[in-house]
Amino acid sequence: MKTRCCCSKRYLLAFFSLLVSVGSILMSVSLSSCSSSVKSSLLLSADSLMEIYPDSALSILESISSPQKLPRADRALYALLLTQARHKNYIALGDDSLIKTAVEYYGDKKKSVRAAKAHYYWGATYGEKGYTSFAVDEYLTAIRLMPVRDEFLAMIYDNLADCYEKDDLYDIAIEAYRQAYQILEGGSQQTYPLRGIARICLLQNKKDSALLYYQKALDYALVEQDSSLIGALYHDLAMVYNEKKDYVQADKYVSKAMIMQGEDAVNVCLSKAQIMLNLNKLDSASYFFSKNIDQLNIYGKAVCYDGMHQIAKKTSNPQLSSSASFLRLNV
What we know:
Elements: H1 9-21, H2 23-28, H3 41-49, H4 54-62, H5 72-88, H6 97-106, H7 113-128, H8 132-145, H9 151-166, H10 170-184, H11 191-203, H12 207-224, H13 227-243, H14 247-261, H15 266-278, H16 282-291, H17 298-314, H18 318-329
């Protein structure tokens, strides 16, 4: 659900002096009650760039020498911002020693955005390591500490829902997605929790409800003209119709997904193959099963070989059937 944009380091160099000069102004409008004790204008500049230019924020933070010598408030903000910048730039967070500096400083008693962010990113660190229950605890703490209902709170609910979904706690997961949607309703990000709700409905075998929420999400994505999300939702709808055995509708939506994402989108291509097989269009099914097979993981390859085996049986081709069976057994 995060929006990540990047700018070049040339931008950073061109405006660096300006950002530093307005540090005192940024200090007065910072989001945390602790900001008044932060002395580093570099930290405040990085903070101001974080949402739109996380790569530039990361460059500023990495330029700070000897962060261990910073005053305590600055060290806490540095730890929080560096963790946040790494996360936004898809860099593994590693152990939790860095973010714990922020957690210990901001605490878990008084509501503040920075306290909430510290616990959220501690949860994200746990999540990366697969410690879902610990991640859930930190996300719940972050929710409790948030003083406002905004997009960041919605993002916490979204990640909390993802944790519950991984543990097959679908009823709790769907409520978390609904909380996120209530916050985002009417805004540009509302599509994401709707898609989450739809996915949970499908996992619960509530196919009609899944169609309803996917279609609603698609309507909003079309308004926003978000091409990548539109393509993903076309694929989602194709999968639901395939589950409902409405293969004509499934083909309609998977074809739209392929137009948006291209035939090199391996998951869409595999779905197209399965739908063609269900429509008994065996030549097309064989083409799409074979097209991107080398790019698939072991599970995707197994689906391909199983599909090829079914095609071989339907076309009475024992040689192809034997080859597919051998490959399937040796995936």
